[in-house]
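In pairs, describe these two lines:
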Amino acid sequence: MATSNDIRKGLCIEFSNDIFKVIEFLHVKPGKGPAFVRTKMKSVTNGKVLDNTFSAGHKIEEVKVITRKFQYLYDDENGFHFMNNDDFSQLYLDKEMIENSQFMKAGEEVTIILKEADETPLSAELPQSVFLDVIEADPGVKGNTATNALKNAIVETGARVMVPLFIEPGDRIKVSTEDGSYLERVK
């Protein structure tokens, strides 16, 4: 059993019948009154973000988790199939457990968070960015170059990405998996 003083970034805790990962935290010691910890937590099961304040010394239930690298194999109508690169065992995750799954392509390495006690999968984290080929892109409109004009493009996974006007079909681009934004063209 841990206390609110043990809260740190990346800590997984059990809170209101769910498992949350601490994204941000701030220890506050006001001049008047008791100290407290202000946190921003993300549910590892459904992705909801929750702001919460813990008073100093508040008991929290820490959840031990382990992370492993898995290779994305394929998806079906219900979810995704992964393979452990160490022992070649396969793992299945529901579609709701992965955020921004439209940027995953076969063979991509994904970090899966497992509960240490029974190795139950909790969630999956994509790499910060991925390299994707542009399959289709709207034509650039002449005269739109005075500003940072963007156009629609469809990448090899089927996801839509807003790209600059100079990107053409066949180009390889780097895309952020957090918000789906274009980062750069790759040679």
Q: What stands out?
A: The chain has a mean pLDDT of 87. Residues 65-125 form a domain with the OB fold (Dihydrolipoamide Acetyltransferase, E2P) fold (CATH 2.40.50.140). The two ends are 51 Å apart (CA to CA).
